[in-house]
Amino acid sequence: MYEDIEQILFDEVDISNATDDIAQRIDNDYKGKCPVIIGVLKGSFIFLADLVRRLNIDFTVDFIKASSYGERTESTGNVKITSDISTDIKGKDVIVVEDILDTGYTLSYITEYLRGFSPHSIRICTLFDKPGRRIVPIKPDYTGIVTDDLFIVGCGLDYNEKYRGMPYVGVPKKQSKKIKE
Ligand code: XMP
Ligand code: MG
Fold it and tell me: pTM of the full predicted structure?
C-alpha cells in the first residue's frame, strides 16, 4: 500500500512510546485542571486522537485551522486562520497540539492569535520537532520525537493529502529539495 516510501524513520512502537510519554507528562502537569486541547488541522488529528485516549485528566477538545500562503512548498510568515475555535478560552489552560514544528511560523502565529482571547496559560505540544529548520524562535513544551530536516509523512502528516493514515512515519520516495511543503 505504501510502496512509495523510501525509508521508515519511526515505527508504530516509537510513536506509541512518544505519545505515552507526553500523555503522562500532561496528566501530571494538569492534575485537577481541565485544559482545552486545541488541535491544529489537519495534520494533528491522528496524534490528538492517540494522545487524548491516554489522558486521565478532564479536558475539552477544539480545533483550529491555519494556512500559510505565498510560496506553495514552503511555510511562510503569511499565516491566516481559516477555521476558528468555537470554545471560549478566556481564563482557561490551553494546550495546542501540532503534528510537526518546522520553521515555527504557523505555531507562533496561532499561539499569538490565541493569546488575544486571554487564556490563563498556553502550552505547545508537538509529535515531531525539526529544530534545525526553525526561523521563529519557538520552543514546544511537549515534544514527542526530534527529527532531522527530512520531509516526513504518516500519522497525520501528508504529501498532497496522501499518507495521513499511514501508521508509521517515513520519507516518501519523491523526497527532494523541492518537497518541503
Ligand atoms: P511551520 O514551518 O510553520 O510549519 O512550523 C509547520 C507545518 O508545516 C508542515 N510540515 C510538514 N508536513 N511533513 C509534512 O507532511 C513534514 O516533514 C513537514 N514539515 C512541516 C506541517 O503542515 C506543519 O503543520
Ligand atoms: Mg500541520
Answer: 0.93
